[in-house]
Amino acid sequence: MKLEQSIKVENLNKTYKGNIQALDGLSFEVDKGSIFGLIGPNGAGKSTAIKIMTTLTRADSGVVRIGDYDVNTEPNHVRKIIGCISQNSGVFREGTARENLILQGELYGMRGSKLKTRVSKLLDNFGLNEVADRIAATYSGGMLRKLDVALGLIHRPQILFLDEPTTGLDPEARSSLWEIILSMSKQENVTVLLTTHYLEEVDRLADKLAIVNAGKVIAEGTPASLKEALNEDMIHISLDSKTELQTDVIEKALSSLRNIFRVEIDGNIIKLRVANASSTLVDVLQVLAANQIHVLNTSIIPSTIDEVYLKYTKK
Ligand SMILES: Nc1ncnc2c1ncn2[C@@H]1O[C@H](COP(=O)(O)OP(=O)(O)OP(=O)(O)O)[C@@H](O)[C@H]1O
Q: Where is the protein situated, by its record's location annotation (predicted)?
């Protein structure tokens, strides 16, 4: 069954002055209520895509639909249903968190008890109650970023755009911010599109991701499906340290097997990069046993999203 889409990007092109091509046929779709990661090297075109999707700039050609609206012909409708957190903070540093949130709500036409209740809920959910009445200039980087995201959510957007939201935060602040974003997106059924250079974040958080390079999507899928498609896991085999290591025998024995891309012998551990790890491990153990090489234990280490990313972006 095809899910309802919140974002549809079709064949987007954008060339900046000086003939700098930022987007070259970028296309992808984001399911409603899901978390979607756009990853790619510096200059791949992620921020440009976000600027187009959030109506801050226009594409030269291509179609973008945000919810039920077209960014070119209905930008005002788009702006009402999205929240954006850009790389630069939008917090007014001389105001408190509460004042920032009230001001932002008023900009969206919210007033009275409705606004007050929303501000209290966001201060609560983002753990900003204690500092709510202190000016933002005194906040830590983590608190400022939380306030930024809270500002983006004040008007209950359907779709939240986060451009590198956690850059510069320490691991604890990053994980705490993500926990809140995840919980808010589930509570309020918000679709989240994020860009980040922290690949383990998209691996853990994103339902789907797209790898962008030179302005186009070069790979797309769930983190698990992309890793599976890479089909390059590691096998580590520990050998008995009491027996003398016969490197040449091991290398010769393993060279008869298919599915092994790389063999490295590190002390008493044989490290193999392989395809079809489970069945290859069975073959490896048989070959080692036939050569009287005694194995103590084995482990399969699945490939990471970093490896998927490097494979596609290094091409
Ligand atoms: N306003 C602009 N004028 C001219 N060139 C631009 C402008 N904005 C971006 N570019 C260029 O367009 C290309 C794509 O940039 P963009 O910022 O969209 O990439 P990105 O993937 O977001 O990179 P990063 O990860 O560094 O934020 C780059 O070559 C960049 O130098």
A: Cell membrane
Tokens of 131: 């500092």
Ligand 1 neighbour 50 (Cβ under 6 A):
no
Whether the complex's predicted ipTM surpasses the cut of 0.95 = yes
pLDDT of amino acid 253? 87
Tokens of 88: 């630069």
Going from the C-alpha of 229 to that of each of 277, 280, 303, 304, the distances in angstroms are 13, 16, 10, 12
Atom 1 of ligand 1: nearest residue by CA position:
16
CATH number of this structure's domain 230-303: 3.30.70.980
| Segment 69-80, tens digit of pLDDT | 999 999 999 999
Q: Whose CA is nearest to atom 12 of ligand 1?
A: 22
Superfamily of domain 5-221: P-loop containing nucleotide triphosphate hydrolases (3.40.50.300)
Q: Which residue has a Cα nearest atom 4 of ligand 1? A: 16
Is the minimum distance from the CB of 45 to ligand 1 under 6 angstroms? yes
- Looking at residue 282, what is its pLDDT? 94
Average pLDDT over residues 59-67: 97
> What are the distances in angstroms from CA 158 to CA 58, 126, 291?
21, 18, 62
Protein residue with least CA distance to atom 26, ligand 1: 42
Is the CB of residue 69 less than 8 Å from the CB of residue 120?
no
**Average pLDDT of the residues in 105-126:** 96
